[in-house]
């Protein structure tokens, strides 16, 4: 894989680390939105936005939701916005499948915490990239992931391929990940890797750590295969295009 540099060690407690990289041309292929579409591109890591205690509470929401299903392969997904939940080799709609029982699994407090955490991450991204937080919209997919070392059963389980979010999803302009478990303590492997021409730059997950970046080809990335244990994270994505915006999940 060539040279690997560690951008953020698990043991670091980073207030704010930001590395600017030149923007790719990906944004020129989409409609531009003044005051939001990236003009400054790069990647950041912070341990100062979400506390470890909050990350643990968020992880418990993910664990409760994923306990209702789970993939046969190594990667399980829970999307509270659309209701998508991995079940075996397929997805079901959590809200339709479980109906009123959802009230026994999640509380209003869970959804309020989720919303609060999302807003703080959005504000930090806006601040770092010098854009208006109100010009950004949450977009899909925004989801919890649970990864373990079970072999892949479908292409959905193959999370380790290099990809570019803007190319894969179109609507993404800013991507963030909130880690909900600790590298080398809760799981091995599973580091986040930015793949630059000259070297790979890795982020070691740590509960409460937020990694965020502009979604174009300037940030080609992948996740290493998880070797042991269980890795929890939530991907929270933002668009500048209001037509691709989604609302926060509601406990119906």
TrEMBL record:
Assigned keywords, A-Z: Dioxygenase, Iron, Metal-binding, Oxidoreductase
A single cellular component GO annotation: membrane
Top-rank lineage group of the source organism: Eukaryota
GO molecular function, one term: oxidoreductase activity, acting on paired donors, with incorporation or reduction of molecular oxygen
Cofactor(s) required for function per UniProt: L-ascorbate
Family annotation (Pfam families): 2OG-FeII_Oxy_3 (PF13640)
InterPro entries per the UniProt record, alphabetical: OGFOD3, Oxoglu/Fe-dep_dioxygenase_dom, Pro_4_hyd_alph, Pro_4_hyd_alph_FE2OG_OXY
Residues in Fe2OG dioxygenase domain copies: 140-242
Protein known as: OGFD3 protein
Organism: Sylvia borin (Garden warbler)
